[in-house]
Amino acid sequence: MFVENLRETLNLGNKLSHKLNPQSIVLLQGPIGAGKTSFVQGIAKGLSISEDITSPTFAISHYYNSGKIPLIHLDLYRLENVSSAKEVFFSEEEEAIQRKAILVIEWPELIEPVIENFWKIKISYAKNYGRHYEIRDPKNLSTFS
Question: Which CATH number is 63's domain given?
Fold first, then answer.
């Protein structure tokens, strides 16, 4: 799926939010600057979250509780080894279960093998401008559009 600009990125995240349930896990892959946090802002908009959504790169996780479903936004970019990433993931997954929250994870490559049921979004730069999104459903891994 081709997305031309920020507005379309936010709309796509909003659209996906309506398919998510408490305890859904969303993995976001893509290069720096591809729009992962903007996509999360769209999800948050769809969940009626009122807080500003910012990148958790340095904090590692941010919690948003004001919406229809709580959202935990996790960024594993700064974690360099699998054991650290797993430790953070399992802690945040437990928190998501307790809060009945959606867990969105940027830079999930180190932990993807230990997760069983998740949405997977791959974002890549389009040739001249915009982004390509590949969105996979957790149940049958079909493409979402």
Answer: 3.40.50.300
